[in-house]
Amino acid sequence: MVIGAVVHSIVISEVITIVTSTDRMSQFIEKQLNIVEAFCEHTQLPRESQFAMKDEIKHRARSVISSFHEDKEQMKELITTGKYIPRWLLGSLPGKMFQGRVLRNQLLMGNLYLPPRLPCLLAVNLHQSQFEAGEIVYQMHDFPFTLFMVLRGTFAHVAVPSEQGGVDTPCEGEDPVVLAKKLSGSGQKSGILSLFPEMAATKPEHQDGAARTTNLYPYRLIGCNSYFGDVELLRSRPRLSTVRCESQTSWVLVLHKTGFAELKDQFPQFAALWGYASRGREWTRTKQLGRCKIGLPYRAIAALQIQRFWRSPQRRPSNDASNPVGEEAVQGSATGPEASIQRVARWSAVTAKKRYINSTSLRFMDRDVSCEGGHATIKLQKRVDKLSEEVGGLREDVRAIMQALNIQRSPRAGAEPDDGGARGEVDGTSRAGAIEGL
C-alpha cells in the first residue's frame, strides 16, 4: 500500500510537470503568434509571409522557450553583489554552464586571469539558436546586433571566387525558406574533388532566389568553440562579409550588442583584448578571401587548410631555424667560417628585432588594458621585463660577433707574407674563440 501510494504520487507529479510545461509552451507560442499577426496587419504583409513567419516561430519555439529571458536584472544583481551567492560557489559555476561550452569558447581564451563573474554575466545574456545548412546567418551591409558563439556545427564566410581573389557580396532578394533548405557548398567540380567523391557538389533542384546563391562559396570556416560577428560590433559599422551555416543542424549562443556593451564596460581589460583579437581575425579573413579563386565545398576547404598547416615550413625541421649555431657554424662551410659567423649575426639581429617589436606591442597593450590592482597589469609587466632582458642579451651577443669580425678583418701588422701557416693558426684560434663566446 505504502509503495503503491509513493509510486502513484511520483507519477502524478510527473504528469503535472508535463502538463504545466506544455501549457507554458502553448502560452508562449500563442503570444508570439498574436504579435506576428498584429505586425503583419500593421505592415500589410501578404498571407504567404505571415504563414512563413508563424511556421518558423512554431518550429523554433522549443529552443526559444528554454532560454532565460525573465528577471535578468535580478540575476545580474545576485551575481555582482555577492550577498547571496558566496565566492566559492560562484567560482564553480562557469565550468558547468552550457556543459562547459562557454568556458571553452575562444571568446574567453587568453592569458588574463578570468574572473568567475565574467562568464556568469555572459551566460545571463545568452540564448540558444539553431541554424540549418545553407541558411544565411547575416549578410554583407547588415547592421550588427548580435555576436555568435558556436556550440555545434560549422559556419563559414562566403564570397564569389575570382582569379584575383574572392569578392564579398550580399545575398539580396533571397528567399529565406528556400535558402534554409539549400545544400551548402554547391558548385563546380574541380581536381581536388576527385579525392573526395562524397564532397562533389551537385546543383540543388530549386528555382528563383536560391538559384542566385550558387555562386557563393566558403573561404573561411568557423568551427565549434569559436565565435564570429565581433568585428563589426567593436567597430560600430555594417557587416563586412556574409556568413552562412554549412553543416546540418548547427547551434550557437547569441549575445545581443547591449549585453556585449555591458561586459566591455564592466571588464575593460577584456574589452581591449577583444579589440586586438578582432583586428587579427579580420586580417586573417581578408587574407583567406584573397585565396578564394575557385569554388569548393566546406569539407574540401577544411582538408586543404589541414594539409597546408602540416606542410608549412614552420613544421619542417630545419637546422638553420632551430639551431643556427650548429655543426656548420662550428666546423665551417664551403664559404669559410666568416660566412657562418655572419649568418649567426644576421639571425641574432633579426631575432632581437622581432622580440623588440613584440615587447613594444606588449607595452602598448599593457597601457591599454591596465587597471589599478588588476592581474592583467602584473602579468603583462612581467612579460615585458622578461622580453627586455632577452633583447639585451641578444644585443650583447651581436656586439661580440661584430667585434670578432672586425678583429678578423683588421690588418695584421708585423706578419710575414710567407708565414701563412702561423697566420692560419691564429685566425682559426680567434674564430673558434669568437664562436665559443656565443
Give a written overview of the molecule.
This protein starts with a helix and ends with a helix. It is built from 16 helices and 8 strands. The strands form 2 sheets. The chain has a 4-stranded antiparallel beta sheet with strand order 1-8-3-6. Strands 2-7-4-5 form a 4-stranded antiparallel beta sheet. It is extended, with a radius of gyration of 31 Å. Among the domains are: about 1-65; about 65-170 and about 215-310, Jelly Rolls. The model is unreliable at about 175-210, about 320-335, about 355-375, about 415-425 and about 430-438 (pLDDT under 50). It has helices at about 1-45, 45-65, 70-80, 85-90, 100-105, 115-125, 175-180, 230-235, 255-265, 270-290, 300-310, 320, 325-330, 335-370, 375-410, 420-435; strands at about 125-130, 135-140, 145-150, 155-160, 215-220, 225-230, 240-245, 250-255. The longest helix has about 40 residues, at about 1-45. The chain is an alpha+beta fold and about 450 residues long. It comes from Alexandrium catenella (Red tide dinoflagellate). This is Cyclic nucleotide-binding domain-containing protein.
Quaternary structure annotation: single chain
Superfamily at the CATH H level of the domain at 67-171 and 213-310? Jelly Rolls
Q: What is the CATH architecture term of the domain at 67-171 and 213-310?
A: Sandwich
| Fraction of residues in helix | 40-55%
- Calculate the terminal CA-CA distance, rounded to whole Å: 89 Å
Quote the beta fraction: 5-15%
CATH class category of the domain at 67-171 and 213-310: Mainly Beta
Mean pLDDT over the full residue set = 71
CATH level 3 topology of the domain at 67-171 and 213-310: Jelly Rolls
